[in-house]
Each structure stands twice: as C-alpha cells, then as structure tokens.
Design goal:
The chain is 0% helix and 30% strand. By secondary structure, the chain is mainly beta. It has a domain of 50 residues: SH3 type barrels. A five-stranded antiparallel beta sheet has the order 4-3-2-1-5, with no helix packed on it. The relative contact order is 0.26.
C-alpha cells in the first residue's frame, strides 16, 4: 500500500488525479489533498494542478504524485477565511 511517503512512480498526465506531497499553506492545502492535473510543464518537471477550493498551483514534480488505485479520497472542511 502506498503512503504519502511512498509516491507512485508513474508519470502524471493531464486530467489525472494528483496528490500533494507537501503542505501549501498559502493556498490552504495540506499534504494528501487531491487535485487534477490541468497542464504539464517541461515533460513532467512541473505541473499545474487545480484543487476543489479553486486554487490552481504550479508544483514541482516532487510536490505531487499520482493518486493510487487502492487509495480512498477523504473530505476535510476548508479552513474559514479571515474575510468570513
């Protein structure tokens, strides 16, 4: 079974689900959050990934990995914004 520390070694493709491997506090995202690859940079050197909170981040290849077939998605509440 894969964990966040054991990334899958398969390339990410556009429209593939991707899992953050590191927190992205500026976007209120944490390791384990799942998004979708919307653009590939430099033959897989970096990816643009869109997340359900509408954040679109450009991430280096080691900051994201493929979602494994045996993994189950989990929902968590989004932190409340300072603007209410």
């Amino acid at each position: 079974m894969n964990t966040l520390a054991e990334p899958l070694y398969e390339p990410l493709a556009e429209h593939r689900r991707a899992v953050l491997t590191v927190d992205q506090p500026e976007a209120e995202l944490i390791a384990g959050d799942v998004g979708v690859v919307v653009l590939i940079h430099g033959e897989g050197a970096a990816y643009e990934v869109e997340f359900p909170n509408h954040a679109v981040l450009t991430l280096e290849a080691d900051q994201v990995r493929a979602l494994g077939m045996e993994e189950i998605l989990h929902v968590r509440p989004q932190p409340s914004s300072p603007n209410g």
